[in-house]
Amino acid sequence: MTRFTVSATVLLLVGLTLAGCATSGVEGQNRYTAELDRLTADCRARGGVLTPNGNATSGRPEIDYACRITGATRLGGS
């Protein structure tokens, strides 16, 4: 192989790798947003408010947020 062919191959591989990272980031962000929207709707349906748990973002909204139920009363008891 000539020096030009090796350089061109390396540049092509780097370009494809960067393109793959760019698209997976967008897909991951869309997936995170969609899951967060679903969790928010589920929480509101139960009379709650989705709140961050205070930890760093894990990339998984079910870990990053908790549903805080507001206005609930205890049922049953003595």
Strand order of the largest sheet: 1-2
Give the oligomer, counting copies of the same chain as homo and different chains as hetero: single chain
How many strands? 2
Structural class: alpha+beta
- What is the mean predicted local confidence, pLDDT? 77
Number of helices: 2
Quick one: overall form?
Answer: rod-shaped
**Beta-sheet strand percentage?**
5-15%
**What is the helical fraction, as a range of percent?**
55-70%
Rg over CA atoms: 23 Å
Q: Report the end-to-end length measured between terminal Cα atoms.
A: 85 Å
| H/E element order | HEHE
Please give a structural write-up.
The protein is of the alpha+beta class and 78 residues long. Helix content is 60%, strand content 13%. The protein has 2 helices and 2 strands; from the N terminus they run αβαβ. Strands 1-2 form a two-stranded antiparallel ribbon. The radius of gyration is 23 Å and the shape is rod-shaped. It starts with a helix and ends in a 9-residue tail after the last strand.
